[in-house]
Structures are given as C-alpha cells and as structure tokens.
Amino acid sequence: MATTDLTSVGEVRATSGDGAIPPTIDRTRNISGGMLMMIFFIGSEVMLFASFFAAYFFARYNIADNDWPPLNQAGEPFKLPVLLTGVNTAVLVASSFTLHWAEHRLKLGDRKGLQVGMIVTMLLGAAFLIVQLNEYWHLGFTPSDTAFGSTFYALTGLHGAHVAVGLLILLVMYIRITRANDFSAKFATPLAAGSLYWHFVDVVWVILFLLVYVL
C-alpha cells in the first residue's frame, strides 16, 4: 500500500510498499509565469520577423531582374555602408555581453556592478540607434525606391523599433534597481525577461546584417 510523504511546500514524495521512492518533484524550479509570457511573446515576434524576411526574399528572388541590390530609380546601384554597419553590429552585440555581465554581478550581490552594466548596455543600444538613423540620413534612397528600398526600410525600421522598446524596458528595470532597490540573486524574473528580449533583438540584427548587408 502506497503512502504519501509531505516533505515540504510544493514537494510530494510517494512511497510504495516495497520501499521504492519515485523521483522528487521540485516545483520551485518551474518557470515563472512572467518569463513564460515573455517566451510566448518572443515566439510571436519570431513569426513577425519571419514574415518580413519572407517579403524581402520574395522581392530579391522573384521581382528583381538585375543583380542584387538592383538599380534605383535614378539608374544607379544601391549602396549600403557595410563596414559602418558591421561596426554598429559589434556595438549591439557588445551590449548583450554587458547586460549578461550586469546580471552576473547581481547574482554575486554586487548592485553597483549591476547598475554600471545596465548603464553601459543602454548607452550601447542608444549608440546603435543613433548610427542607424545617421545611416538612413546618408543612404541616398527612400522606402519608395523600388521593392529593395521598401523591404530594406521595413526590415531595418522594424528592428529599430524593437531596439527602442528594448531600451525602454531596460530603463524601467534600471529605475526599479536604483529607486526601489528591486531585484536580488533570488528574485530577478522581470530583469531576466527583459534581458531575454534584448538578446533576441540582438540575434535578429545579426541575422539581418548577414542576409541584407553581406550576402
């Protein structure tokens, strides 16, 4: 006859007559609702970006008759600042490392390091957006310049909007850290969710840079 042993809150062990004890269920390790919601949200964002990438490749392989990028309305080839954007990509990738470092400092109880890491991350993200806007200013073509211009601005603009949202999330987290003395090594779910979103935005840009600027 099986008996039930209540060992702790949320943890139940059942023993059978022969003394065998099945694996313990530790509910404290289950993923939090907030993190789960962020994962689902990022899943929807993956599908959104996938649709934009699909539109880009449709224009590239089914509409353009010339070499890619095609000629613009003035009969000149589109020129993309690959080197500058490559440096800007490195800036955004570096922001992921500084954010990860900030979270690591929190786990060690170093709140000063956490704040410094958050500030550096936000500065790098803002620098990326500024360089991107400067690129738009000097590109020499607009979204109305053929399908290439439309899909290029749609993809990069959509990503830029996500970077702006990510910066807003990080700013809210930073305010909670400094004003409310929020988060600790045992509780940092909102920060972890915001960090996951930021890493997702960075990964999307690396893919975008390789597919649109390099290939």
Labels describing this entry:
2 domains; 5 helices; single chain; 215 residues; mainly alpha; 5% strand
Briefly say what this structure is:
With 215 residues, the chain is mainly alpha-helical. The chain has two domains: 1-30, no CATH class; 32-214, Cytochrome c oxidase, subunit III, four-helix bundle (Four Helix Bundle (Hemerythrin (Met), subunit A), Up-down Bundle), CATH 1.20.120.80.
What do these coordinates show?
The protein is mainly alpha-helical and 215 residues long. It folds into two domains: 1-30, no CATH class; 32-214, Up-down Bundle (Four Helix Bundle (Hemerythrin (Met), subunit A)). The chain has helices at residues 33-63, 82-107, 111-138, 146-179, 189-214; strands spanning 3-8, 11-15. It has a two-stranded antiparallel ribbon with strand order 1-2. Helix 1 packs parallel to helix 5 (189-214). The radius of gyration is 24 Å and the shape is elongated.
